[in-house]
Input
Amino acid sequence: MEIIRTTGERFASVLLEGGFPLILNYNDLESTTFFVETCQMKVLTCTSPGSFEYTEQAMPVLSKSHAIIKIKRIGICGTDLHAFEGTQPYFNYPRVLGHELAGELIDADGATGATFADDFKKGEVVTLIPYFNCGSCIACRSDKPNCCVNLEVFGVHIDGGMKEYISVPAYSLVHGGGLPAETLAWQSRWPSVHMVSGAPM
Output
């Protein structure tokens, strides 16, 4: 187990040195073989300001109303940089960063998505809206999930996408609309931009 200490300027380099797909894809393993034979995945954790640690942990198992995504691309947001620098308020360590991402949909239970009504298909490239609401507080019951009193931001309040596979609420999924993973990860911060870019002309 290696602890990597570095500066903000080398943030992207650290990810690449550890084999994380900031730019490059993961090696092409069959997902079924990977699940059955290893049941482990690589995870990059920001353990404290200025420190990363690579570990392995159990791969997520499909649960009710959730989706499993194989990460293909990760974007680095100002929030990630501030967390790494130790200047992000209301932030706890250790934390797996990463909320701007694109990946392959491996499996899903009840995935109708956040911005499209049609069903999602295994194997398609997707992104997500990284704000997870509880569904039961007064704001959620009033159809105002953005005001959820228990709102959790992926990669901030809960562990994010800097791992090989993630499990997220199915309602958070957004179709890739034919966009490449590089573009989709970048546009995941602006769902409205993504929708316009993916719309037929």
